[in-house]
Amino acid sequence: MFMLNPNPDYRKALDPADAETLSVAEAREVERFLGFRQGHKPTPLVSLPALARELRVGAIRIKDEGHRLGLRSFKALGGSYAVIRLVLEEAGKQLGRKVDISEVQSPEVKAVAEKITVSCATDGNHGRSVAQGAQLVGANCAIFVHSGVSDERIAAIASFGAKMIRVEGNYDDSVAEATRTAEANGWTTVSDTSWPGYERVPSLVMQGYTALMSEALREMPEPPTHAFVQAGVGGIAAAVAGHFSVLYGDKRPFLTVVDPARAACLFESAKAGRAVKVEHGEATVMAMLECYEPSLVAWRILSRAADAFMTVDEEDAISVMNRLARPTGGDPAVVAGESGGVGLAALIKVAKDENLRAAAGLTETSRIFLINTEGATDPALYEKLVGISPDQLAA
């Protein structure tokens, strides 16, 4: 399903707070902060010229977050950055002065950090990022995972020293339990989704995602004309849409938000004209996108700055994993997890349908920006779906 943005606030200016969060100045500061993490470096921007010719567009470039700092996900940016910011702010309060990122390993900051516990609910990737940030600054960390999170993903989070807490039910159930427990224990919730009265921390998480935008835009000879960005609660899509809006205003790229058909909370919100919660049904293979209620901050941005909303099916996600693993025409292979290639799956559906091409304004000169939001974060499942291990493919 494909739908142009029908909301009455479409193309209105961003809320001033959101515009500041996703500004160029803040994006530069994000990169400075993240540069203090050991091993931090830009991820590749991969060009797919053969696929572009097949889909009758000018260029396809995909930012490959499967290489992000060992976590194999763009979420290595947001949660980690938010934890660092929050700990430094608390240190500043206790020390009575502004504390810079350059002091993150100082004894004074460590003494503050070791008394802080950060926590969140996760499908896998966000929790790893929060745990990694906590490990960097020396804070304690508790991560809540629902019953659908695989043992491999749980082990990957625990490797950063986090206490793991299992919750029966789905992602939304784990969010509720994480919030309740954090309030009872005085922990700091570092969530990538927002709700009434809880917006600043998710905004910091989104702000962390601007690092990948800064990296990508520096490499592009020209800005993109179109972007297809997958969404769970909407954080990464809102970060991209909002940053484009700040940079380019009315000349920003045409941005399509992509949901799994089985968890289409943003598509349904666009249709309803307000943020809505959708019913939980059969699980989707796109596990990192299996969210049933949008982040309010993300929805506020996307209702204004997204141009279209669409859904893709289970077979689309699996097909594009295989397509990226076995490219034709000399294109490089890309290891994309179950949720990683969803933006490309949407592009393929739109590009091959003349009516949808016209609706999205796709032409033979269009320059497409995509994000491989995750690599093989569950290697065993990747091999099952693609027929080759990620290590073999990388080799």
From TrEMBL:
The entry's keywords: Lyase, Pyridoxal phosphate
InterPro entries, sorted: DiNH2opropionate_NH3_lyase, TrpB-like_PALP, TrpB-like_PALP_sf
Pfam (any one): PALP
Domain called Tryptophan synthase beta chain-like PALP: residue spans: 38-358
High-level lineage: Bacteria, Pseudomonadati, Pseudomonadota, Alphaproteobacteria, Hyphomicrobiales
Domain of life: Bacteria
GO molecular function, one term: diaminopropionate ammonia-lyase activity
Official protein name in the record: Diaminopropionate ammonia-lyase
Transmembrane portions of the chain: none
Cofactor: pyridoxal 5'-phosphate
Source species: Pseudaminobacter salicylatoxidans
